[in-house]
Each structure stands twice: as C-alpha cells, then as structure tokens.
Amino acid sequence: MSMTQILYSLLAVGVGGAWWVQSARAREWACGRVADACREADVQWLDGAVVLKRIELGRNAHGERCLCRTYVFEYSEDGASRRQGFLRLRGAELDWIGFGPVAVRGAA
Q: Residue 103's pLDDT is what?
C-alpha cells in the first residue's frame, strides 16, 4: 500500500468518525428536546428513543447550508395507545416538534 493510499484511508476514517460523533450528539440533543416537549405536553414518551427518519441539506436561520435531520418518536396520551411525533433539527437548532394526531399502525 502506498503512502497516498494510507493517507486517504486515514482521512476517510477521520471523516467517518467525525460524522458518527456529530450524529450521536445530534441524536442525544434531540432526545433531550423530546423529553422536555413530552413533559410540557403531559404525554408519556415511549421507549425513550428517537429514530432518524430523514437527513437532507438545507439552510439554517442565517442562510448557511446545514444538515436537516428529521427524527420520529412514539408517545402515549393515555398509556394504552401509541402515537407518533416528529422532531426536526436544522443544523444544531431546533426547527420544530410535532405531535401527530394519528395512532401508530398496529397499536391497540
């Protein structure tokens, strides 16, 4: 393996590691915002998890390009039903959190 190939490999590993760390931080931050929103709305956040649904390029409030991440989560209003909510991040800023009116498929 040539020195150039080694350097490119190390660069790819570094970029991949930075991507992974940034994604993990965004997910943790999203979990905190969902927990706060569920507490304020007086609903129960189910499973304590958010799932990345979509990632795309967009622009933040300053017009700069950034990653926009949409997460989904499940919550319950009465402890028996499951509903789906959504959270969207624009870069490191919260864009919106929504609680869906429709029950999740397969829920009782």
A: 53
- CA distance linking residue 27 with residue 49, whole number of Å: 9
Question: Which residue from 74, 69, 73, 63 is spatially nearest to 95, judged by alpha carbons?
Answer: 69
Q: How many domains does the chain have?
A: 1
Which long-range contacts does 57-62 make (Cβ < 8 Å, 24+ apart)? 58/90, 59/90, 60/90, 60/91, 60/93, 61/90, 61/93
Mean pLDDT by 10 residues, the chain (108 residues): 88 90 90 93 92 93 90 90 91 87 50
Model pTM? Answer: 0.80
CA atoms within 13 A on the CB side of 1: 7
Its domain, for residue 89, covers: 3-103
Domain-located, residue 44: yes
